[in-house]
Amino acid sequence: MDTEPPESGGRPDAAAPERAAGARTACWVLRPALPADVEAIVEIRAVVMRPDLERLGRYDEHRVRQRLRDSFSPLYTSVIMIDDDLAGCVTLRPADGRQWLEHFYLAPHHQGRGLGSAILRALLARIDARGSTVGLNVLQGSAARRLYERHGFAVEAQDAIDVHMARRPARAAA
Q: What is the pLDDT of residues 34-55, one digit of tens each?
């Protein structure tokens, strides 16, 4: 198990605002999550996950919120901020010899403008620099799977509900 402390890379904190290559993406920062952020994040998760969970016949208004409350870890979670707007969150948790990308949610009004790709590129560059593999789970049929595939994730296993994906560290250019 990877026991790297968060201050050396466990939490995906950004030191300065970043902008995607295209003009469509706003400046964003990652800040450490606070316990007080949980309810705002719970609501973003419930809205974002609802269509996929309904499609899979697994949506439960209480459960979708409680699952995040039960697994929320400010230690490994960062909040995505655009100006004073909590735009989403992302968790990078070390376990089983890899970094687990979890709870990567953007509020619907921040989706479709390249923000998710910009954040993912920045996170993966940091993880690649450490030589770590990244694992994640995505729901079957979720549009998020295409985002992850564009960034080098490949399917390791799947079942009727989840697709388990991983990305090996990218090699530095020679």
A: 999 999 999 999 999 999 999 9
76 and 91 Cβ atoms separated by less than 8 Å: yes
Distance of alpha carbon 20 from alpha carbon 28, whole angstroms = 9
Rounded to 5°, angle at Cα 147 from 63 and 155 = 80
Asked if 94 and 130 count as a contact pair (C-beta separation under 8 A), the reply is no
In the three-class reduction of DSSP (H, G, I as helix; E, B as strand; rest coil), residue 149 is classed as: helix
State residue 86 phi and psi, 5-degree precision. Answer: -75, 105
Give helix 61-71 / helix 38-55 axis angle, nearest 10°: 130
pTM of the model: 0.84
Residue 34 CA to residue 78 CA, distance in Å, equals 9
pLDDT in tens, 90-141: 999 999 999 999 999 999 999 999 999 999 999 999 999 999 999 999 999 9
Q: What's the distance, CA 25 to chain centroid?
A: 17
DSSP strands (E only) in 83-153: 85-95, 98-106, 134-139
Give dist(CA 158, CA 167) in Å, integer.
15
Scanning the structure block, which residue is given the tokens 């609802």?
50
